[in-house]
Amino acid sequence: MNVTLPKRIHSQETLQLDGRHQITVVGVNGSGKSRFMRRMMTDAGENAFFISSLQALFPVKNQPECSSKNITKCYNESISKVQFVKPSADTEFEMLLYLLLNDEMIEMVAYKISNFNNPNNTDNPLPLTKLDRVVKMWNEVFPNYDITRTAGKLRFANALDTKTFTPLNLSNGEKAVFFCIGAALYAPKNSVIFVDSPTMFLHRSITQMLWSLIENSRRDCTFVYLTHDIEFPTSRSDNQTIWVRGGDLDGNEWDYEIIKPHETLSEQLIIDLLGTRKPVLFVEGDNTHSLDFRLYQLLFPEYAVKPMGSCDKVIETVRSFNDIQSFHHLDSKGIVDRDRRTDKEVEYLHNKKIFVPDVAEIENLFMLEPVVRTIARLKGKNDIQVFMKVKANLMKMFKQELKSQALLHTRHFVKRSVEVVIDRRFKNISALEEHLDNLSEELNPRAIYEEHCRTFNRYYQEGDYRGVLKVYNQKLMLVDTMVAPLCGFKSKDEYIKAIFSTLKRENHDAEIIRTALKQCFGDLE
Fold first, then answer.
1. Are 352 and 282 in contact (CB under 8 A)?
2. What is the pTM assigned to this prediction?
């Protein structure tokens, strides 16, 4: 079914989404997305049907009247036909219970009359009622519950307990599941079903299953969801997401975008990042265990820091995200470890808004002189003596590994150079073979290795502590230099924790550490 979208700001065109089974409207608080959906409901006219599990659990008299069809209107239409005793229902949940039981009775009466009029017709099965369908889907979501019909009333029971209870004694989440399943069945054929907050009261583990069941039960309908849950859109199988940024609400005009598939960026990532108004900083690692995320959140609070895993993923994501900047209007940058990159490689990445700290890897940042001395002083140690011991230990380690480190840097250079060569275009296989035969002479890895040895040896001879931190990749550095016990800590984890704790404060010590760390990133501000 075609769905008409509200008018865009400064645009006269009318947009339509054709043949979509699911549409999800998302946006930050205050962006006007609720009014956006109400506008869609108005434009859908008689085809609109509204479901809200939040409103369903509270008295209808305290809620604004809905212009579209909903359970309240279905209920009012039903009781208008009752001549004698009027049922009493304060909430839409109670109204739905009445509708289901009333329709069940009507179906059973019709079945009985049919059998009475055709006594010889033995091929007349019981009709499948709306209540039957609700019970079936309910049991798929909650297989340990039974629903029984007794004396015109519904009773629920847990399979582990024989005691039954009424629908009103269900939890809010259980009521929400029951209501959403039942309400969708009352939407007229070929409706556009508008669902406000489809994850309300629901545990994430059942959300996807529930709405897939409901959607499959109404394949004739289009579902339009309004949600704050940025993970919900990607749980739908045939979804189109609309991101609402804001708009002229009085003029019924909105600033919004339809999120389109991207070759490298997932829809989940795009929606996640659109939820922030900060520029984005992509970093290595994850958001639970990596030092990168924890440190850079403290160091660059003006950014929304997003961990991406590998350095290649950071580089790829920054490039892709900046390619669609006209859509999201967010500035994005990245940070990757130096990892033996040459100055030329670092400059290339910088031009792509990817920053490389002036140390070999993130652990080396915690070895910077101002950091070590500040933490040592805070623990009541002689900061100068502590640093000199740490420096001596580092230089000793570096001297022992000088040649192996030089070889690793040479290997990196050769590997990158070969990748560039292989990516060139050659007229034929002979031209490629000829180039590869001369590659060793062209690259001259021994000369590169000897040059690294000379540079590294100079760092050692001159006691160039910063120079060593720039080129020395050694994951055990924080342990083997004894920086933690020298500063008064039992382990490197306690030492790092002290650095993070200091950065969280707003004082002179925090500023010393913060300044020293930020200086390693140049103009990243």
1. no
2. 0.67
Paired tokens of 516: 């020293």
Q: What's 8's DSSP letter?
A: B
Give the span between the Cα atoms of 463 and 474, in whole angstroms: 18
Pairing of strands 22-26, 16-17: unpaired
Name the burial class of residue 125, with classes exposed (0-12), middle (13-18) and buried (19+) by CB atoms within 10 angstroms of its CB: exposed
To which H or E segment does residue 247 belong?
strand 239-248
CA dist 493 and 452 (Å) reads 32
Q: What is d(CA 253, CA 247) in angstroms, rounded to the nearest whole number?
A: 6
End-to-end CA distance of the chain: 48
Q: How far apart are CA 284 and CA 498, in angstroms?
A: 22
CA distances from 435 to 323, 438, 446 (A): 35, 5, 19
CA 397 to chain centre: 42
Please give the full DSSP string across 94-153, using - where no structure is assigned: HHHHHHHHHHHHHHHHHHHHHHHH-TT----PPP--HHHHHHHHHHHH-TTEEEEEETTE
Radius of gyration of the chain (CA): 33
Q: Are strands 222-226 and 22-26 parallel, antiparallel or unpaired?
A: parallel
CA–CA distance from 80 to each of 72, 104, 487 (Å)? Answer: 12, 18, 81
Q: State which amino acid sits at residue 308.
A: M
Compute mean pLDDT per 10 residues along the chain, 525 residues long, and list them. 83 75 83 88 93 90 80 90 71 93 83 70 76 93 86 82 86 94 96 94 90 94 89 82 81 81 63 72 86 93 90 88 68 90 90 94 96 96 97 97 95 81 65 66 84 96 96 94 96 95 94 95 84
Q: Which segments within 93-160 are labelled E, that is strand? A: 145-150, 153-158
pLDDT at residue 117, rounded to an integer: 66
* Tokens describing residue 495: 């030492």
Retrieve residue 471's tokens.
Answer: 């080129």
DSSP codes, 56-95: HTS-GGGSPPPSSB-HHHHHHHHHTT--SPPP--SSHHHH
Cβ-contact 431, 421 below 8 angstroms:
no
Q: Which positions ≥6 away from 270 have C-beta within 8 Å?
A: 259, 262, 328
Residues shown for the chain = 525
Element at 439 (helix H, strand E): helix 439-443
* Cα distance between residue 50 and residue 192, in whole Å: 9
